[in-house]
Amino acid sequence: MFKKVYETAAVAKVGREGLVKTTDGQLSLNLGFPKAMGGSHSDRLNPEQLFAAGYASCFSQAVFAVSKKLGHDLKEAPIEVTVQLHVQEEPMAFELRVGISLTVDLPEAKAKELMKLSHETCPYSKLAKPSQIIW
């Protein structure tokens, strides 16, 4: 049985073109549509960038936890997460697709095992449907 060990919350009042902030005051950002989506704010972050950053840091932590159990002594676990936003016109729907890559000094078979087990461990990965993960 899972036990809650942490909780946080954020509020956004006007979607992608406004302020988003955590309720504890630690984060406050003005978001903007990227130019690729017809926006004019290349200097503002967007939800996909925030998701990519969160997923990358969470997956990297999962890699450290799993590698320790497997007996690998990793000094770092550089994870690159790529987030794609896909849209469907009729019926209107949006979907994220995520690419995950790990750069680590291990033999290929061990690196693949590490990725698989880390994917099974990472809370962000558990939220994604298998069809949304791009290896």
TrEMBL record:
GO terms for biological process: response to oxidative stress. InterPro entries: KH_dom-like_a/b, OHR, OsmC/Ohr_fam, OsmC/Ohrsf. Belongs to the OsmC/Ohr family. PANTHER family: ORGANIC HYDROPEROXIDE RESISTANCE PROTEIN-LIKE. This is Peroxiredoxin, Ohr family protein. It comes from Mycoplasmoides gallisepticum (Mycoplasma gallisepticum).
